């Protein structure tokens, strides 16, 4: 009995040590597992932050490209306007020489000088980017001088002026009239493109698509026709 009394506390102490070691090992394992989870979370957060930064960089790049495209488009439209205005002026300067060479002259007008002044007034307003006033002036010219040899230019620039003034309904109507009345004019493809843009601004996308299709089919080699073809192809891909 005496021997038993001495051995039992020793064995109890041994069991306590083993249990303590097991608990310590379990605690150490739990700590390691938690540490691994924290490291995994931190790693995921770092990856997410890197991905977010990459997305932001791509977005900034795309915005920059968009701004460049808008700037190029504005510059292109300005060059196109200046080109046609210059061409219009050159052609009208050639008309007197052509008449002197024996080309049949148009029917006499009540006041050809006033006709010219009215057209110049509208054109000068357009050059000054006073689009609303220019549009109204061109419309007045079209109604006042229905037999004028400048009806084509007045119609085209009237359409352009109205579109720039955000009067897209009138702009679309005049662009359509120009393309239908003077289909052989070099500005006809641009007129159809302008009509499509005005229709899109009016959210009449079905009609705009039809005009782009007409432009692509009728003037496939023109710059406007090529742009229409690309847009139609892109629209077709999006629908798929």
From TrEMBL:
Ranges where the YbgF trimerisation domain occurs: 29-99
Q: Name one Pfam family in it.
A: TolA_bind_tri
Q: Please give the coiled-coil regions recorded for this protein.
A: 17-44
Q: What is its main location?
A: periplasm
A GO cellular component annotated for this chain's UniProt record is: outer membrane-bounded periplasmic space
List locations, semicolon-separated: Periplasm
Keyword Signal in annotation:
yes
- Region entry Disordered: which residue ranges? 95-115
Which GO BP terms sit in this record? FtsZ-dependent cytokinesis; protein trimerization
The alphabetical list of record keywords is: Cell cycle, Cell division, Coiled coil, Periplasm, Signal
What InterPro entries does the entry give? Answer: CpoB (IPR034706), TPR-like_helical_dom_sf (IPR011990), YbgF_tri (IPR032519)
Q: Does the keyword Coiled coil apply?
A: yes
Give the function comment from the record. Mediates coordination of peptidoglycan synthesis and outer membrane constriction during cell division.
Family of the protein in this entry: Belongs to the CpoB family.
Q: Which named protein is this?
A: Cell division coordinator CpoB
Q: What species does this protein belong to?
A: Rugosibacter aromaticivorans
- Gene of origin? cpoB
